[in-house]
Amino acid sequence: MMGRKGLASLTSVAAALLLWFVVTTLTGLVSPGRFPSPAEFWQSLVQIATRGYAGAPLLAHAVQSLKLVLLGFAVAVATGVPLGLWMGWSRRAEAAINPVFLLIRPIPPLAWIPLAILWLGLGDAAKIMVIWFAAFVPSVINAFAGVRAIDRPMIEAARMLGTPRWRLVREVIAPAASPMIFTGLRLSLQASWTTLVAAELVGALLGIGFVLNVAQQDIYPGMILVGMVTVGLLGWATTWLLAMAEQRALAWNMAARD
Amino acid sequence: MRDTPLSFAERIGWGALGLAVLLGTWTLLTASGLVPRPFLPTPLDVLDRMIELMSAPFAGATLPQHLASSFERYAYGVLLAALIGVPLGLLMGWFRWLDDIVTPLFDGLRFIAPIAWVPFAALWFGTGIGGPVLIIFAGAFPPCLINAYRGARFVEPRLIEAARMLGTGNLRIILEILLPAATPSIVAGLRVAAGLGWQSLVGAELIVAAAGVGFMMVQAQANVATPTVMAGMVAIGIVGMVIDVALRQGEAWLRRRRGLEA
User: In the A/B pair of chains, how many CB contacts fall below 8 A?
Assistant: First the structure.
C-alpha cells in the first residue's frame, strides 16, 4: 500500500518531530522563549481550543479567517475570470484594459492594506477588498491566457455550424480555457491566504492573523506556533478542496491526456 | 481572437481610452466632492506628495531613504534565499535520499504563508534588519529551491550516464552538468523569487519594521495621510517594476549568450 516514497516521507517527518523534542525538551538547546517545546505547543492548543485566546476560541478565529478568504476569493474569481475571458476574446478589450493592468499590477497586493484600512476600517470589508485585489490578477491573467491558447480551428468549426455566441462561450471557450483557469484559481487562493494573514496582522479583532498578532505581543511562542500551524492547515485544506473540484470539472481533460 | 489583430494606432487609441477612463473616474470622484479629498486625493495630489517626499522627511526619513533601507533588507533576503535554495535544490535533484528527507518537510512548510513567520521573525531577530530579512527569505526561498530541483531533475540522462561512465565524481557532475543544464530554470526561479520577495518585504515592513517604505505607509495610515500612503504604493510599484525589467533583461542576455555558445 505505502511505497518507498511514502515510507521515506513518514520517516522524515517523524525524525523532524523527534529532533524538535530533543532540542527543546531533552537538551534545552533551544530556549522556550525562542521556540516552544511539543508540550508547550499542546498546552497552547488546548488553551485556545477550550478557554479561548485573543478574545475567542480557536474555532471562531478559524471560521472568521476562512469566511473572509472564501468571500474575497469568490468575489475575485467571479469578476476576474469573466474579465480575463473577455480580454482573451476581444482584442479591443485587451488593448483598453491591458495598460490599466500594467499600471496597477506592479503594486503588490499587500501594499493596498494601509489604504484599505484607511477607507474601510478594521472590519471585514477592508480585508475582502485586499483579498479581492490580490486574487483578482492571477484569475484574469490565466483566464486570458487560456482563451488565447485555444486552437482557432475549434472556434471556427463551432462558428461554421452556426453555434450562438453564448453557447460558444459556455461550451467551447470556457471548457477549453478551464485548465488554465484552474491554474489561475490555485494561485488566487494562495494569494488570498497570504493577504488575509497580512491584513489580520496589521489590524483585526478576530481571526488567525489576529491570534498571531496578540501572541507576538504577549511573547507567547507556543501560541504563535499554534497560529502558524492553523494557517498552514487551513491553506492546505482549501487547496485540496480546489484540487478535488478541478479533478471533477476537468475529468474529461484528464482522461484525454492519459 | 474574434478579429484580426489591431493596428498600432488602434492599440494606442484603446489603451489611451482605458487609462483615461481610470484616471478620469478617479479625478472626477474627488473633484466632484463625491468622495472626500482626505480619503481619495486626486492623481495630481499624489504626484505632488511624491515630489515633496523626495526632500521632506516623513516617519523619520525621506522617500529615497526609506526606499534605500527597504532595498537593503530586500537584497539580503533574496540573496540568502538564492544562496541556500539553489544549491539545496541541485543537491536534492542529484541525491535521492536528500530529496526524500527534505521534500515532505518542505511541502508541509509551504502551506504556511511567508507572512505568518512575522511573529517568530520579530521574536528571533527583532524589527531592525533581521526580522524583515527572514520574511523576505521565506517568500523568496521556495521558487529558488523548486526551480533548481526541477532543472537538475530533468537533465538529459545521457549526459549523466556519459559522465558516470567516465568516472566523474558527484561534485563535478553537479557543478559541470547539473548546474549549467539547470541554469535557465534557475534563472526563471530567481525572477519569481525576486517578485515574491518584494511582495513579502512590503508585508514585513507593514508589520515589523522601524524604517522602510512599508513602515512609512503604516505611519501615514495612522495619521490619515492618504496622499503619503498612495505615494508609497506608487514608489513600491515603480521599484518592483524596475527589478522585474532588470531581471528580464538579464535573463534575455543569458539566453542569448547560451544561444551563441551552443
Answer: 177
Helix (H, G, I), strand (E, B) or coil at A156: helix
> What's the CA dihedral at A158, A163, A164, A168 to 10 degrees?
-40
> Does A113 lie at the interface with B, CB-CB under 8 angstroms?
yes
Residue B233 near residue B217 (C-beta atoms within 8 A): yes
Question: In chain A, how many domains are there?
Answer: 1
Q: What is the CATH architecture assignment of B44-261? A: Orthogonal Bundle (1.10)
Determine whether the interchain pair A231/B113 forms a contact, defined as Cβ–Cβ distance below 8 Å: yes
Cell for A216? 507576538
Residue A227: inside a domain, yes or no?
yes
Looking at residues B213-218, what average pLDDT do you find?
91
pLDDT in tens, B45-73: 889 899 999 888 888 889 999 999 999 99
The model's pTM: 0.85
Confidence of residue A80 (pLDDT cuts 50, 70, 90): very high
DSSP sequence for B53-81: HTTS-BTTB-HHHHHHHHHHHHHHHHHHH
Strands (E), B41-197: none
A221 to B11: CB separation less than 8 angstroms, yes or no: no
What is the C-alpha separation between B26 and A70, in angstroms, rounded?
A: 29
- Report d(CA B134, CA B128) in Å as an integer: 11
ipTM: 0.84
